[in-house]
Amino acid sequence: MTRLPHPHPERAPAARPRHPLGWLALCACAALTACATPAPTIAPLPAVDIARFMGDWYVIANIPTFPEKNAFNAVESYALRPDGRIQTDFRYRDGSFEAPVKTLHPVATVRPGTGNAVWGMQFIWPIQAEYLIADVSPDYQSTIVARSKRDHVWLMARTPELAPEAYAQALRKIEALGYDLAKLRRVPQRWPER
């Protein structure tokens, strides 16, 4: 069948790759371009002892992502993988302490030259969300993980509760990072689970 020229060449549709892999390559290139990561606008810690940072962290308060909006007993766990990346397991109950446990398993990559303080957290390939360790206590018992967009933040601790003065001090730090504390949600924690 002979293909006739388009009646209005200036409005002709762009040529499409004929092979399905062509579309896949095009989409991958577009996604990678969208994943370019500018320098953080929040100052990360100059250095994080990555081995000490591994392990379980209870989410005390956050400006939540969509899956976390109604999280109860939220715990983020980090483990170094043989390839140098960080296996992350986020465990929570959605809506109540009695709800079934849900888990997410993203993988983080530490960005070179950041002293282990800036991670690219990958839930879906190839997109890596910026996770920035903005604060960690000297004993590695509490931390604040932020984002340059100031859309999400996580206050986490090694225990399910922080003392009132430690919590108030953490809130001041989060506010100093440029976050609106009115958006912060205290995550319900009750342990041991029943």
Radius of gyration: 21 Å
**Shape assignment:** globular
CATH class: Mainly Beta
Helix amount, in percent? 10-25%
CATH fold-level topology: Lipocalin
Can you put this structure into words, describing what you see?
This protein has three helices and ten strands. With 194 residues, it is α+β, with helices and mostly antiparallel strands. It has a single domain (50-186), classed as Calycin beta-barrel core domain (Lipocalin, Beta Barrel). Strands 1-2-3-5-6-7-8-9 form an eight-stranded antiparallel barrel. Strand 5 (107-110) and strand 6 form a beta hairpin. The protein is globular, with a radius of gyration of 21 Å. Residues 1-36 have low confidence and may be disordered.
What brief labels describe this structure?
eight-stranded antiparallel barrel; 3 helices; disordered N terminus; alpha+beta; Lipocalin; 194 residues
Summarize this entry quickly:
The protein has 194 residues and is α+β, with helices and mostly antiparallel strands.
Blueprint (SSEs and pairs):
Elements: H1 20-34, H2 50-53, E1 55-63, E2 71-80, E3 86-94, E4 101-104, E5 107-110, E6 118-124, E7 127-136, E8 142-146, E9 153-157, H3 164-176, E10 185-186
Antiparallel strand pairs: 1-2, 1-9, 1-10, 2-3, 3-4, 3-5, 5-6, 6-7, 7-8, 8-9
